[in-house]
Amino acid sequence: MDAQSGHQPVGEIVDRLDAVVKRDNVSLRDLFEEFGESSFLPALMVPSLLVVSPLSGIPLFSSVCGLTIAFISAQMLISRKHLWLPDMLMRMKIDGPKARTAVQKMRGVGAWIDRHSRHRLPVFLTAPMRKWLQLLCMLCGFAMPFLEIVPFSSSLLGSAVTLLATAMLARDGLFALLGSIAIATAALVPVGVIGAI
Predict the structure, then answer these.
(1) What top-level branch of life does the organism fall under (predicted)?
(2) How far apart are CA 172 and CA 117, in angstroms?
């Protein structure tokens, strides 16, 4: 089903996050346990949405999200059945009120994605291309800790991963193209910053 048929994959993920962040302190373990250890795409969507939220202003938060994205994507690449993340990442705490504010900000993004996603351009979602998308997500995740000091880079990469995850979740090849464009744009940001120095 597509968004036009009433299915809202990103909105449903945001709704489930909203149910978790009612507490005063929330760990990444709390967030991922909501989706289960075999739900790779929703799990991938969680840190990518968080890194484009106001929470990205917290020092090292983008790095943690990036490493989480990289670990999840790597396990998707090797077709692992159950998700595993290092305990160091899973223990990271997020302030409850800040998390609730971030989730509310995500609603607009989620609604826009769900409203515009549908089944199209399936050639970009065939088995070899899906592996390519997963590899791109992994590379984006590993790049985030190195780009934390470059303004907007982590958020652009987070947006790219969100688009690629949506492409795989909603089977929308157009979002795969948009995600690839976002990655190319993010790659140009540090080049521009270095050139301006």
Answers:
(1) Bacteria
(2) 6
